[in-house]
Structure formats: C-alpha cells, structure tokens
TrEMBL record:
Keywords: Signal. This is Cytochrome P460 family protein. Residues 1-21 form the signal peptide. InterPro entries: Cytochrome_P460, Cytochrome_P460_sp. It comes from the Bacteria. Residues 43-166 form the Cytochrome P460 domain. It comes from Sinorhizobium numidicum. Gene3D superfamilies: Cytochrome P460 (3.50.70.20). The keyword Signal applies.
C-alpha cells in the first residue's frame, strides 16, 4: 500500500508540478477570471495539492487528466465522507495525450486543454447540489453555455456520490 501511495505521489508530481499548496478556493485569481453563472475562480496554489486520481480519456478527447484536491476534500475522501463538506475544492487538469519521445509505449502530457474547478458551498450553490463550477482555458473562463452543462452532466451520472465523478485512488 505504501509503495502504491508513493507511486501515486510521484505521478502527481509529474502531472501537476510541485508548487506550494493553499487551502483557499479562488483566492487571488481575480473576479475578471471568474466563471460565468457560478463565479468560481482558479484557486491559488492548486498545482501543489494532493492527487485524488489520474485518468485517461479516450477518443474523441484523447486526454490525460489528473484531479487534485484541497485538504478539506482529501480528508473527506480518506474518511469516506459524503456529502463532501463545504470548503471542498476539486481541480481537474487536462492535457492532450502525447507519445513519450524517450519511451514509445508511454503517454505524456502534451498541450494543456482545460482546468476545471468544483467548489462546495451548500448555501451559495443550493440549486446545483451545493457545487459551483468553473471551466478555464488558458486561465480564462469559457463561455456561459459551456458552464450550463456542468451540473446537468454531474446530476445525471453521479447524484449518488454527491455529484462527484472522481473516486480516491488507493
């Protein structure tokens, strides 16, 4: 188990970097970069957060993905707490999948595609299961139409898991 945790930690460092962590959600990112509808911003220091799980998205997106979380979320995952507590922040990073130049069978992150954020605030986002959503390309929020699809997709598929797709990797 310890080896697996160390391997996942290594994968997290490879995928998301090693910047310092912060517990805030959206602090310092500025209101001009807030997502439409929800007002969610990219949290400072998220690239230093702990890995929840990596993922591979097949065609047509062909992406490598990693979900990282703040300490509130990590504690909830470890304890099996559902619903997630207010203050939970999940960030999904996605890159086009590229072939490793050093090792042909391996995939490595290519161009960044999106950063997606989920912020739990059961009062502020009561109409969307307690979650606010943000989707960003090149650090800027995407249009309102794309944000309108966020909750509908989560509600249709993972309502029984507090609207969260990603499970904690063992």
């Amino acid at each position: 188990m310890r080896r697996l945790n160390l391997a996942l930690a290594g994968l997290a460092a490879t995928l998301v970097g090693t910047a310092g962590a912060t517990l805030g959600a959206g602090a310092g990112s500025g209101a001009t970069n807030a997502s439409p509808i929800y007002g969610v911003t990219i949290p400072d220091g998220y690239r230093g957060w702990e890995l929840v799980a990596p993922a591979l998205e097949a065609d047509p997106l062909n992406e490598l993905r990693a979900v990282v979380a703040n300490s509130v979320a990590i504690e909830a995952y470890r304890a099996g707490t559902l619903p997630f507590p207010d203050g939970t922040v999940l960030v999904k990073l996605a890159w086009k999948r590229a072939q490793s130049p050093e090792f042909e069978p391996a995939s490595v992150p290519g161009a960044s595609t999106t950063v997606q954020v989920m912020l739990k605030d059961s009062k502020k986002y009561a109409a969307t299961g307690g979650w606010g959503f943000g989707r960003f390309v090149d650090g800027k929020p995407v249009d309102e139409a794309q944000h309108q699809t966020c909750f509908a997709c989560h509600e249709a598929r993972v309502q029984g898991h507090d609207y969260v797709f990603t499970r904690f990797a063992p």
